[in-house]
Amino acid sequence: xxxxxxxxxxxxxxxxxxxxxxxxxxxxxxxxxxxxxxxxxxxxxxxxxxxxxxxxxxxxxxxxxxxxxxxxxxxxxxxxxxxxxxxxxxxxxxxxxxxxxxxxxxxxxxxxxxxxxxxxxxxxxxxxxxxxxxxxxxxxxxxxxxxxxxxxxxxxxxxxxxxxxxxxxxxxxxxxxxxxxxxxxxxxxxxxxxxxxxxxxxxxxxxxxxxxxxxxxxxxxxxxxxxxxxxxxxxxxxxxxxxxxxxxxxxxxxxxxxxxxxxxxxxxxxxxxxxxxxxxxxxxxxxxxxxxxxxxxxxxxxxxxxxxxxxxxxx
Length: 315
Known about the structure:
The protein is mainly alpha-helical.
């Protein structure tokens, strides 16, 4: 048995052992944590299957997370705010994130190497090293891409549903409700259209019930969402309370502005469709159309015109 085969078998054994350990840790639950959550009852209102999977994933990848995790001060970094903007509030999310980065950065080169070996590829030397480095780079940066996509989708949902929430809040405040009561009512009504925005407003109400100042609770709302329109809404509410102006009238004006901005973004996206369709038309649809239209004519030219030009009779 050659040294290459021995190394390949060793990598397969290590990868299989790591996979079994990871699956056992991921599927197996924590009994103490489960009993605690059952005792909490309604207090764990924001506990979801996603949060439980994050806990299990963090527990399975915690030893590997230290290899790629940043140093001290991560809690105040921009990456931590991206977790919050993506709706991931679990304290174990950083360990799960960096653990997955390490597993993919190490596992994808192993899978690539095993696939090339099983397929009998002749890639060796520098080319093999290039493929392994490419697989490691993809595995390392793939969680960042997924996290960015989650942040984008969540921000878009909040942006699209926030004007409707402001309309409901305006109606509630014009009917005589206070700011806290209006936020609570809007959170209950918006749960059918956007659970994300409803959860954020419920968190604001929980902070207010816990004794946090209204300005701080609203600022936290802007930080958690990361949406510019929500930040403008928070600034508008704070200034209206500070200067004693009508909050309901300010909400109506702000809601009109947000609806206009939402319509403008929709028009901008519609205007980009023609440019986005240009390259598929050129490289995929137009060649097929030309083949269908010009194919019979080219066949006739080949059959009739070329023999005539060469001085021979056509068929």
